[in-house]
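Note to self: the last two entries modelled the partners one at a time, which told us nothing about the interface. This time every component goes in together.
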Amino acid sequence: MTSETLGRRVRSGVSHTLLIIVAIAFLGPLVYAVSTSLKPADEVFTPTPHLFGSEIRWQNYADAFTFAPFGRYFLNSLFVAVAGTAVVVIASSLSAYAFARLQFRGREQLFVLFLGTLMVPQEVLIVPMYWLMQSLGWVDSYWALILPWAFTAFGTFLLRQFFLTVPAELEEAARVDGCGPFRSFLRIMLPLARPAIAVLTVFTFISFWGSFLWPLIIVNSVTDKGTVPLGLAQFVGQQGTQWNLMMAASILAMVPTVLLVILLQKHLVRGLLVTGLGGR
Amino acid sequence: MATDTTTVAPPGLPSKADRVGRRPALRRDGRFAGIFLAPSLGGLALFTLFPTAMALAISLFDWPVFGERKFLGIDNYTQLLNDPVFRRVVLNTALFVVLYVPLNLVVSLGLAVWVGPKIKGRQAFRVLFFIPVMTPMVANVMVWRLLFQPGGLLDSGLESWFGINAPNFLGSSAWAMPAVVAMSIWQGFGYNFLVFSAALDQVPQSQLESAQIDGAGPLQRFRYVTWPMITPSIFFATTMTLITSFQVFVQPFILTQGGPGVATQTIVMYVYNQGWQFLTMGLASAAGWVLFVIIMAVTAIQFVGQRKWVQYDV
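The predicted structure of the combined assembly is written out below.
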């Protein structure tokens, strides 16, 4: 072994160690949250930091559900996210197919219009959207939590890009055999597009799961229609916040998304567009 | 998946794929197209196009949540410009953007280059840094609120390990904004980290190696080989980060409630307060439109500026 390769090995070893230290520092806040979530209430604030309290209190996770109606919040969030995701996936796969495969006049212009809607930030839309919900009688309803943000051009864009990579010959053969566009879409395109649809599904679910500004505006009866982020935010600024219980609830809110990210790790890059501006 | 990385391009740019779609083989699909497009088109028209126009209309009215509406013309806009609070929240938002965007880009690009395409376990770093991007923002911010709290980890840690008497981060007008920025970078840099590491994967090792043989040091290799190839990703990341950072809301809302005073109140918080605390929808809508115009202007500047430094055909 020459001294040059030895030097390189030492350098890469040092660099690797430093990276791991950075990763641990990055994890610090999450470790702190888990640690706090397992402490007795009177040991959250101590003069010197301790990783563990005098006991490991798993009971905090159960107590969070009685301290506030987190059971209800979780069910609401789950329902809204699943229903919203279903609408997004159905509507965007249909329109993506039209843009990728069907010939019709004005297709390019319409697609530009679709992409143009991505430019409008949610903050511009919330005021008229609230008025629209008032007019429809949807304030404080599940409809209002699900539908307004379920028609985004992101899904259409993402799936159209995928559909375009599917060889047209596959469908042409079926069309020659008398297969109409609907059957061709259902039987050929959708099964082939399963990976792209999975990515869209997961990222849309996560964006509904975490959305905060709109539920904050549209939900009046938090204990009835509140979602998890709304439930968590209820306790901000209150005197005597039960931080150990709040951390337990926060961790529980994170767990599904962390699992989905790990599950989908190979496809994260494709989801970047959905997450980038879709945080509604 | 080699094709994955091609998604990392600004949306809306015509790609080769667009031309593939124009096949003459499938014709006379007009009536089917209508059915396929109906849900999305209807939804976008009702929930995006119509509200966008309505936002402009509402901004021209005295529009309380309940009660009489009155046409004002541009009065809401002049009132905004004369409102010292609104001027302050625009400055606060600009300060957040100016601190957050460069720091986010430096941290994410620096770490992406450091981790590099060759290191073992780089996938683990991608997943790890991406986690707070996906976890509910409110939950993330709750954790940081406890962290910054007097008696929280930062306070007690600084005191007992370094003997430093920490300030009340969230209650101090000097520290509140840096605290919001720090939290936001922790939360958000994993997105750009992923964008950049995907781009770095595409840089051919053979070119880096031949540059090394020609005697180029690591900095020169980065400047002359890597950088030109990743400029499209840098442009994409910068644009996306700029747009989202102007929309900052949850972090200050949960960490500081915009305080102390209005030291960390942002434009979106102002929209929320006007609309749902003071119930003046006209003013809220006008503030939303001002934000929209700012974002469009900054994005337009980005797109004009890109011609000078972004290289698409390397």
